[in-house]
Inverse folding.
């Protein structure tokens, strides 16, 4: 089964959310005070609301359930403080041996984004994004080191996407096949490669909201307690 989110790393693609059943929010849904996001109400207060100190109350479970691949974006830039928060989430991601073998190149210029979309046939959504983050990592001839780097990049990717979803910002990932074009546009050193791109923007179709019935294998098929 080709699920949402599998497409852009070189696998057969669907549109990123064709299988999601999103016509109904979870019970007690309310509007979140952020653009592009509708979230559930917990304890009588809207998720994402500010507390008395002015700090945003993060509802992790809502962000997890609301995240979906978004490849069509509305107009408007992402606020610089929101973009920095998303990048900071990537920086704080877990890392094997704390090697932190990543760098993030964030692009917001429309002309650069249009060119960057050419690095992979399924990266067209990058051109219409408000911002795109390129994840750059060192190359390695050691198979174990390569595996650990890819593992870390996966963790950073999910941190970035969840932080974006918490802000009502949609995201999608794309692989990078044309490394020379990516290097020319982004300027990373010869000993590095661009692993993937994460495009960002407010969804053009509908706000992010908790997905009640995601296109995923049933819980009881996936979860094994104590043994297979």
């Amino acid at each position: 089964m080709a699920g949402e989110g599998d497409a852009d790393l070189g696998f057969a693609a669907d549109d990123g959310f064709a299988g999601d059943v999103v016509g109904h929010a979870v019970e007690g849904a309310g509007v979140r005070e952020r653009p592009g996001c509708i979230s559930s109400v917990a304890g009588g207060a809207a998720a994402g609301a500010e507390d008395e100190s002015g700090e945003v109350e993060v509802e992790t479970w809502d962000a997890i359930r609301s995240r979906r691949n978004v490849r069509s974006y509305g107009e408007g830039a992402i606020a610089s403080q929101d973009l920095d928060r998303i990048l900071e989430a990537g920086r704080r991601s877990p890392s094997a041996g704390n090697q932190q073998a990543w760098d993030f190149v964030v692009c917001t210029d429309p002309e650069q984004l249009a060119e960057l979309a050419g690095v992979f046939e399924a990266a067209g959504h990058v051109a219409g994004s408000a911002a795109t983050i390129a994840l750059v990592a060192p190359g390695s001839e050691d198979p174990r080191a390569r595996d650990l780097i890819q593992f870390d990049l996966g963790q950073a990717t999910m941190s970035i996407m969840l932080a974006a979803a918490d802000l009502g910002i949609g995201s999608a990932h794309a692989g990078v096949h044309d490394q020379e074009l990516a290097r020319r546009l982004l300027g990373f050193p010869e000993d590095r490669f661009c692993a993937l791109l994460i495009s960002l923007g407010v969804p053009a179709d509908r706000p992010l909201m908790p997905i009640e019935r995601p296109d995923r294998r049933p819980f009881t098929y996936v979860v094994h307690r104590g043994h297979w």
